[in-house]
Amino acid sequence: MMRLAMVSLTALGLAACAEAPQDVAQVKGKYAGKVDAKPYEEGPQKMTRSEWEKSLRTRADNQNEYKRVN
Amino acid sequence: MARMKFICDAERCIECNGCVTACKNEHEVPWGVNRRRVVTLNDGIVGAERSISVACMHCSDAPCQAVCPVDCFYKTEDGVVLHDKDLCIGCGYCFYACPFGAPQFPQAGAFGVRGKMDKCTFCSGGPEVNTSDAEFKKYGRNRLAEGKLPACAEMCSTKALLAGDGDVLSDIYRERVMRRGKGGEVWGWATAYGRPDQKGAPVAPTPAVKS
Lengths: 70, 211
Description:
B: two-stranded antiparallel sheet, two-stranded antiparallel ribbon
């Protein structure tokens, strides 16, 4: 009985010694962070890819003052 | 759409630092961190002095991404190089690898302790919910998700700094050079975009074998 109690106590005492693995699951050379949503998929101005591209293209074209002025 | 790029026209930059201020203001970047800065080339040489605005160029084959020990860098489908600040350990390897000195490190504590790396995001935030508070605090404003271009380029008074799709920028720049007849050299482009990483990119012709 005494022996059983000793074994149980030892097992209980060592229970906290276990260590959970803390390594980041990582494949070298591959992005290991969080997934980022595409700019046109989320947010207040949700739009399709083509609408988004059109918006950016218009703004990019506006940088050409030869087109804007003439 | 091809991919997002920056062009700085050294013939037009007047060193006003409007781009630097616009960036600081847009993203509320902390003291000591400059995502964008204006650099003077050939300083003091009469007739050869030029100014250019420099930030992360979002390289085709980004060296920061290659050297990161925790692989916190990624590239979006539009060619913007971003990183996850939750993963960054602030080791500074990316700073040593970057040819443009883009990665910045805030002074996080006493004894020169470095914080997590901060750099230009092409105004496209980071891996958080688009236009959320968390994204703004970590990475700054996400203008791309609002259908806008980077604040620095849109704010540039002389349109020396251009941002956007590489094809559109090339067209604008080509027209400029044709009209003024000089200044065709684009500083930093060969370093940033010189090595195409896309499949189907043109292969250098093999020299003919002499018999």
